[in-house]
Amino acid sequence: MRKINIEGSSKTPRINFDGEKGVLEFYGRSIPENSVEFFEPLNQWLVEYSHNAKDDTVIDIKLEYFNTSSSKCILDFFKRLESMNGPVTNVKVNWYYEKDDEDMAEAGEDYDAIVDLPFKLIEVEEI
Amino acid sequence: MALTNIYKFFRSLEDEHIILSFKGDFTSDLLNAFLHLMEAKMNELNVDLKQRKRVLNVLIESLQNLYHHVESNNDFEIKKVKETALVLVKYFENKFTIQTGNFIENNSLNELKSRLKEVNSLNNDELRGLYKLKLENNTLSVKGTAGLGLIDIARKSKRKLDYHFIEVDEKSSFFCLKIVVE
Fold first, then answer.
1. Which end of chain B has fewer CB atoms within 10 angstroms, the N or the C?
2. Strand A56-66 and strand A23-30: pairing?
3. How large is the average pLDDT for residues B115-141?
């Protein structure tokens, strides 16, 4: 299983996908004007991973900012994970937010309500 | 502009407590630069995390609205003259006010007006509900827009959106939007 390491930019997050460990990490900001292009390779990777998935898959999301275009792509990404959860792998999502950032905490709660995946909201000092 | 009017122009921005302004084409690079400058300004001003994030979120959504709007304009004559937009950021008494101005074709006025009215008729919990509903059910446009921008702006602002349309000619109007972030 190949690894994906995408450097972050001023508008896109840093991504580390490690298929051997079953860990997917998002860091930083996701505010591209058109997020579809950015998320497409990640969705491809997920399909690849699903053929050879680990028993447990952990998704760590540590976003500072995301725009509404990304919010839709993030949901689609979770939906893909949702359909893998159970038969293919056991998915866990860790949604990080900075202390006092109630908006980011709310966003995590909203995804948790929409998607049938185990979400853990984790407050941290700094992202 | 007469040479001496530059000072008047400067003075009026200063008196309005405008900390950053831009008039021109809203390109992707401009968005980067504008956000970068605002982050630096807010660091200087020691703005707390919650307000800083809300201001930046509102700016991202409103500037990207302008970017997508400009991009979608296919009529070359309209494009040539009217693809520029204006954005002003005011900081006064710990409040940020973001004002944008751009041309919009009259045939898309009604849709925009009804979206603004809808957003202004809802309280924060209702806005959150609408956001969730649209997040779940809307599909992204070809340009990657989700139809969530104004809802997100209203949620972050926690206030009613202030807006006005000025008819320019039979084809177009000027759309003025004012967003306050406390």
1. N
2. parallel
3. 93
Q: Tell if the CB–CB gap between A68 and B54 is shorter than 8 Å.
A: no
3 state SS of A53: coil
pLDDT at B142 over 80: no
Res. B76: pLDDT tops 70: no
pLDDT tens profile A24-41: 999 999 999 889 999 998
Which is it for the CA torsion A73, A76, A78, A80, positive or negative?
Answer: negative
> What is the structure's pLDDT at B141?
76
> What pLDDT digit, counting tens, does each position of A101-127 carry?
999 999 999 999 999 999 999 999 988
Burial class (CB in 10 A: 0-12, 13-18, 19+), A77: buried
Asked if residue B143 lies in contact with residue B16, where contact means CB atoms within 8 angstroms, the answer is no
Which of A92, A95, A84 lies closest to A124 in space, CA to CA? A95
Select from B27, B51, B53 the residue whose CB has the most chain A CBs within 10 Å, as the one to mutate to test that interface.
B53
Lowest-confidence region among A82-91, B77-86, B89-98: B77-86
Structural domains in chain A, CATH included, are 4-124 (3.30.750.24)
Tokens of B125: 């919990």
Number of residues in chain B:
182
Q: What average pLDDT does the structure give for chain B?
A: 90
For B62, the token pair is 């409103």
Alpha-carbon gap: B125 to the closest alpha carbon of chain A (Å): 11
Q: Work out the burial of residue A51: count CB atoms within 10 Å of its CB; fewer than 13 is exposed, 13-18 middle, 19 or more buried.
A: exposed
Cβ–Cβ of B135/A75 closer than 8 Å? yes
**ipTM for the whole complex:** 0.92
> Smallest Cβ distance to B148: which of A68, A99, A104?
A68
Q: What number of C-beta contacts closer than 8 Å exist between A and B?
A: 78
- Report CA Rg, chain B: 17
The one-letter amino acid code at B46 reads N
